[in-house]
Amino acid sequence: MIRRQNQYRKEIRDAMKGGDMSVEIAHLWEAEELGRNSRLFATLTLKVGASIGYHVHEHEAEYFTVLSGRAEVDDNGKTAILEPGDTIRTGAGEGHSVRSVGEETLVLLAVIVAD
Question: How far is Cα 16 from Cα 50, in angstroms, rounded to an integer?
Fold first, then answer.
């Protein structure tokens, strides 16, 4: 099956997980299309200064890959800067947050699977 970029369902989440500003989520595939062990396959777009607040994942892992922009992440209490091509994995029982920093909008590929 092929899905074109103009076919993605998009949503805006304000103050996602207690973060600042809003995050645009483009669902590349819907949860029911992913199979029983996955619930998200999407791009997340954060304008400079926008963030997703710190949160812990239970019984699942989330993977982010930076497609463009720069991200400041809190990876279980450790802060790091991620740039295009960098990835982060947050496993079950672990927590993270992400903030768009720098001069360019941050775009992440996000995948959430059972862990």
Answer: 9
CATH number of the domain that residue 79 is part of: 2.60.120.10
62, 94 contact by CB (below 8 A): no
Whether the model pTM is above 0.90: yes
How many structural domains are present in the chain? 1
Strand partners, 43: 26, 109
pLDDT in tens, the chain (115 residues): 999 999 999 999 999 999 999 999 999 999 999 988 999 999 999 999 999 999 999 999 999 999 999 999 999 999 999 999 999 999 999 999 999 998 999 999 999 999 8
Strand, helix or coil for residue 6: helix
